[in-house]
Specification:
The protein has about 180 residues and is α/β, with parallel strands linked by helices. The chain is built from four helices and 14 strands. The termini are far apart.
Length: about 180
């Protein structure tokens, strides 16, 4: 992802606007000055905002500045999105902490306390060495993890506490083992 051509500022602002519109739609859609201020100050919103600026600078060759912005945003929000990560339009992040690495498609949702990253093998499938490629309209429930060079197909849904280490076909629903009562009093 780091060898992509530079992104225009107009395109960067369009991505930021699509992220904010997604927050507004998800949080009820009724706009008022107080709500807009509240939505703008959410840690997940701030993390995406600073990621978009860092990504713009990264692709423009300002690598050290983009990594500094990443570091500051991580400390402020507890959400790690390095500038090497590519995220499409209209991303929604629910709660911190989240780690996002690799290539992520449009209209991505992650509800928090999980993320995407490496740690399995050094193969590159398009997201970077050892990193996943996530399709469009993918939804990850709380604590969902995607690890290694795997592809998550368009429209896939990952359930709570899933750990995915293999490719997931488009439109699939992945669920962790259901809870069960071992002993009742």
């Amino acid at each position: 992802p780091s060898d992509e051509p530079p992104m225009s500022w107009t395109h960067t602002r369009e991505l930021m606007r699509s992220d904010f519109e997604r927050v507004v739609d998800t949080m009820g859609g009724q706009r008022s000055l107080g709500r807009i201020l509240y939505w703008s100050l959410l840690p997940s919103r701030q993390a995406l905002f600073w990621y978009r600026i860092g990504r713009y600078l990264f692709l423009r060759g300002w690598r050290n500045t983009s990594w500094l912005i990443f570091l500051a945003a991580t400390y402020l929000t507890r959400i790690e999105i390095p500038p090497t990560t590519a995220i499409g339009h209209s991303c929604f992040l629910g709660h911190a902490p989240i780690v996002l690495c690799g290539r992520i498609g449009d209209h991505f949702t992650h509800f928090g306390d999980g993320g995407m990253g490496g740690g399995i093998e050094q193969k590159d499938i398009g997201g970077g060495p050892d990193l996943p490629v996530i399709g469009d309209h993918v939804m990850c429930a709380i604590r969902a993890l995607v690890l290694g060079p795997v592809h998550i197909g368009d429209g896939a849904q990952l359930g709570p506490s899933c750990t995915v280490t293999r490719d997931v076909p488009a439109g699939s629903v992945v669920a962790a083992a259901p809870s069960r009562i071992l002993r009742s009093t």
